[in-house]
Amino acid sequence: MYFYVLALHNTFRWIALVFLVYSLCRSVNGYYSKRSFSKADNAFRHWTATILQIQMMLGLVLYFYSPFVDTGFFAIVHPVVMFIAVTIASVGSALAKRKPTDHQKFSTMLAWFAIALIIIAVMIPWPFSPFAQRPYIRPL
Asked: Cα angle at 103 between 14 and 25, to 5 degrees?
């Protein structure tokens, strides 16, 4: 089971990042061009939050089965801060959905998704990170 979850986690982390960056680009474009909030914008808002939540669940499963959790970064810092980032993105998605104007929807998505992306980018165990060196794509 560990290898299946690890494979899904490896795939979903890149899908989550792509969706978050793309949704952020859509919100920047919509905010500055003052266009209407389309069904596609709403779908990307929703699916970005959903994919991030799925990624968080996969990460929690790995948290209990992974041999890497023994180290400090992966035992406490990484999961807690990633949980905060996913919560920020989810709250931002929910708030954007409820805003009355298109401009407010884009600005809410822009602010909350940007904060989530910054937090996620800082907490990713990049290969050049002093906390944990990991390859971009881990072999199974």
From this structure: 25
124 — alpha (psi -120 to 50), left (phi > 0) or beta? Answer: beta
Please tell me the distance from the alpha carbon of residue 135 to that of residue 123, in angstroms, as a whole number: 14
pTM, two decimals, is: 0.88
| Number of CB atoms found within 10 A of residue 47's CB | 15
Please state, in angstroms and rounded to a whole number, the distance separating the CA atoms of residues 137 and 134. Answer: 8
Q: What is the pLDDT of residues 29-64, one digit of tens each?
A: 999 999 999 999 999 999 999 999 999 999 998 888
Cα(61)–Cα(58) distance, rounded to whole angstroms?
5
Q: Which amino acid is at 8?
A: L
